[in-house]
Structure formats: C-alpha cells, structure tokens
Amino acid sequence: MALGPYASFIVTSYALVAAVVLILIVWIAIDHRRVRARLHELESSGAARRSGRGATDLT
Amino acid sequence: MTLTELANPTRFLSLATRILPWLAMATGILLAIGLYQSAMAPDDYQQGATVKIMFIHVPNAWLSMFVWGVMSVASLGTLVWRHPLADVAAKAAAPIGAAFTFLALVTGSLWGRPMWGTYWEWDARLTSVLILFLMYLGLIALWRAVEDPSRAARAAAVLTLVGAINIPIIKFSVDWWNTLHQPASVMKMGGSSLDKSFLIPLLVMAVAFSLLFITLHLAAMRNEILRRRLRALQMLQASKPVALP
Predict the structure, then answer these.
(1) How many structural domains compose chain B?
(2) Which of B34, B155, B164, B181 would bridge B205 by S-S if both were Cys, CB 3.0 to 4.6 A apart?
(3) What is the model's pLDDT at position B238?
(4) Which domain holds residue B162?
(5) What is the dihedral angle through the alpha carbons of A22, A24, A26, A28, rounded to the nearest 10 degrees?
C-alpha cells in the first residue's frame, strides 16, 4: 500500500484518531475502577444506601 | 424493555453491564473490517492516497453533530419529562462528543493542508465546527462548576438546546455560503456521488464509530450513575449525627 507524497498527513491522522480513542477508553475504564473502589471503601466502613442494597448491586 | 422501565438506574446498570462486552466486541470487529477496507480502497484520481483520511474524518464529523443531537434529546428529557437518566446521558456524552469534534477538526486540517494548501481557513463550515467544539468544552466546564448535579443538569440542558441551533448551521453551511469545504457528497438529494469503492468503507467506518460511541456512552453513563450513588452515600455519612463522649 503506497501512500504517496502525503503519507505523513495520512499516518498522522490515523495515529491521532487511534491515540484519542485509546485515551477515551482508558479514561472511562480508570474512572470506573476508581468510583467502584471508593464505593466499596465507603460500604465496607458501614455506609449503606437508604434502600439497604449495595451501590454496585445490579438486582 | 420500555423507556419507562429503563428509567430505573439499577435496571439500566444491569442491562449496560450485560450488553457492554458484546457491543465492544462488535465495535472491534467492525473497526477492523473498516480499517482493512480503507487501506485497500483505491487512490482518488484527484486526491491520490489522501482520500484515506476521509474514512476517519467523515465519521468523526458526523458523530460530532450526532452526539450533540443525542444531548439535545436528553436535555428535553431533563427539562420536560424529568427522566432520571436524561441528565446522566447528557453529561456522559459531552466529553465523547468533544473528542469526536476535536478529531474531525484535526483530521480535516491534516487533509486540508495537502488538498487546499492550508491547515485552516475561517470559512463557514470550519468555523461553525470550531464553535461546536468550544460549546462542548463550555458544557463540560459547566457540569464541573456546579456541584449539585440536578442544578447543573437544568443549566446544561438549556445551554445544550440553545446550542442545537448550530447543528443545522454546520450541516447547511456549505450550501448557504461560499466555503472552501466541499459540499455534501453522501447525504444529499439524488443519492451519494461517491463511488462504491469509497462509499462502502466509509459507511462501515461510520457504523463502527457509531457503535464505538454507543459503547463508550453506556460505559460513561454507568460510571456517572455510580458516581452519584457515591455522592449520595457520602452525603448520608456526613449528615449522620456524631455521638459525643
């Protein structure tokens, strides 16, 4: 696959999209872990929701 | 499952957790197919290989507007129906929409330099998309500036609905004004003017990026629901009376 004289523009575009998408995925995954960890920490220290269910319960 | 049933955050969390792995897998597979087709697409007779930038630029540009549309519907949900997940959906979509708009601007700029001879031109299409990007940043700042999520939600919903006026301006800017940007070539009266060898990879990439948005949006909404539960628990803890010795 020859990209011609403007290869650097094409490669930079694709690399940038890959980098930003990766940053979004990692940011959302880290955020999820962080919030869950803080919820577990709080619940293990005795905090409970009014409903009595765990904050990460899915049922 | 109806929209009313989905209004229950616990039910939404359960559904999102079940379908997220499947969505992520479908996104990965479609992205791989789209990237392969993009790599194999022929060079354009005028643009040469730079036409390959179209396969990532156009889906990002479409999504930059689509995400604002999703946020506008969610804003109506907040203001009119007071749907409990509406402001969660709007808040979670904003950073993702900002990222797509940023990518549309930068890839467009990188495509423009070899084709137009310039990275940037203050024409109607480019400027209106830049305004969209700035509006996304403004919304994110607003959400962060107001501590109470329900108060922030109402202010953000009004701002989102006012900002929605920019979407038709972006879409029709190439028809209303004389711009450097080319007019619509896929979604236009009389059908697409793109050859199948470009249109098929472009549509596959557009579906792949749309699935990527849905996946990221559901995951970000899940985080936001958990964050609100965390906040509620912290406030409950803080309001408990302290036993004095």
Answers:
(1) 1
(2) B34
(3) 80
(4) 8-175+208-230
(5) -160
